[in-house]
Amino acid sequence: MKIALLGGMVNNMYLLTKALRRLNYNAFYIRDPLDTFMLHQPFWLDTYGQFSPSDIKKYSSFSQWKEFEEKIGWKKEPYLIDPLDITSIKPAPSPQINSQLTRYFFFRRYNRTLEWKKIQSTIKGFDLLISCGVHSILNARLSGKPYYIWSHGGDIRYLLGLEGETTGFLNKIYHYATINMLRDAFNSAEGILLNDPTSIYTDGTPSVTKTKQKLIHKNITSLPLPSFIPPPSSEKDSPLPSDKINILIPSRFDLKWKQQDIFLKGLAKSKNKNLYRVTILSWGKNANLIQKYIHNLGLGSVVKIVGQVFTKPMLLKFYKKHDIVVDQFGIGTFGSICMEALSVNVPVMIYIDEAAFKHSPEMIPPVLNARNVDDVTIQLNSIAEDKDKLVELRRNIKKWYIKNLGDIAFQKRFQNILGDKL
Fold it and tell me: Based on the domain organization, do 169 and 43 belong to the same domain?
């Protein structure tokens, strides 16, 4: 079976492609030429590098990325397909869509564009599609092929009307039509796969719940991100000084979703704060407030700001230099940052709502669990007074990760999901 993974989120789709090929599946990644966000480009998983936050929005077209990739010497994997490299186009299939309005919208808005024609021409040669993101899900629906949706969250929020709202008559029609197309695409999918094991149940009914809205589908399954194995590095590691406990805050600084201010306030209250050395990667929605928090909380001698964004291999290398990685305190479950750190056996401080894992308690990771400022302070004081706590935690992390997120566990889940289709 020839499997195509379609979508711009390399942290999801390209990563999944790598894992499937590692497990001997005939999988290919089809790059989304309409997605120009830096952290979504394939080189982000294949190279060691770091960039300033201003670089993230520097490139705004597929051709600019092609030039950049040639400049840094990035070599495209043979299983990665760039649709815009195609010179000849086969006719795209006629979409079988429920709504006349939706069908009209497909042809007028998308199916007449060169990019979409090339994507449709590319995916004709595959037996099964796995897609994520609004555009890629609609492309999968257009293809006439069986497909799964591996949602990254934004596509479901768009479907439920929680994202994408706009003003202006024509824009409102566009938003309404896109939601209708997405609803048809979700209903027509073979199944919906979710990275988050806590979001698929509400009162025992398979569903995805966002605020008061719910998406119910006949087949919703948890498929956590597989392991990421970085390419070999020619550079030797230079360890950080071991006189203190080194902590890294790598994810975007976001006071709404990540709430890293909770950690900084908890650190400021700790009687042992001077035993820690904290590094913050300065990027994200509220990055401009980091210096203010450090100053107001009196953490100038404890916290260092690094104004760089790291590619995935470089980030994992950086994780391993630290004793603890700090993730988020507002969501109650884990995502890629937590899983990446655990994959290299580094303890994570994060808020995990254990009650949300009632349908999958085995997926509760061994972490330094902290919900609020006081929890953070307690954890930091406890570690400072007994550093063996981290040693024991690392042992538990390794066992848990191999059992629940390692390649064998991932392959078993994937085979159970696709069943006879494989």
Answer: yes
- CA atoms lying within 13 Å on the CB side of residue 20: 24
Bridge partners for 6 per DSSP: 30, 131
Cβ neighbours for 209, distance < 8 A, ≥ 6 positions apart: 199, 202, 215
* Tokens read off for 289: 């407030």
Q: How far apart are CA 30 and CA 351, in angstroms?
A: 35
Shared domain for 381 and 415, answered yes or no, is no
**64 Cβ contact partners less than 8 Å away, ≥ 6 residues apart:** 36
Which range has the top average pLDDT, 52-61, 161-170, 377-386? 377-386
* Range from 54-63, 160-169, 198-207 carrying the lowest mean pLDDT: 198-207
Give CA–CA dist 303/326, Å, rounded: 13
Domain ranges, residue 267: 245-404
pTM across the whole model: 0.85
Are 24 and 133 within one domain? yes
Total of domains in the chain: 2
Q: Is 38 helix (H, G, I), strand (E, B) or coil?
A: helix
Helix, strand or coil for residue 239? coil
| pLDDT tens-place string over residues 285-297 | 899 999 999 999 9
> What pairs with residue 305 in β-bridges?
280
For residues 130 and 28, is the Cβ–Cβ distance under 8 A? no
Q: Please check whether residues 90 and 48 belong to one and the same domain.
A: yes
Same domain? 281 vs 211: no
Does the structure show a pLDDT above 80 at 122? Answer: yes
CB count in 10 Å sphere of residue 375: 18
Identify each DSSP E strand in 69-166 by its residue range. 80-81, 128-131, 147-151
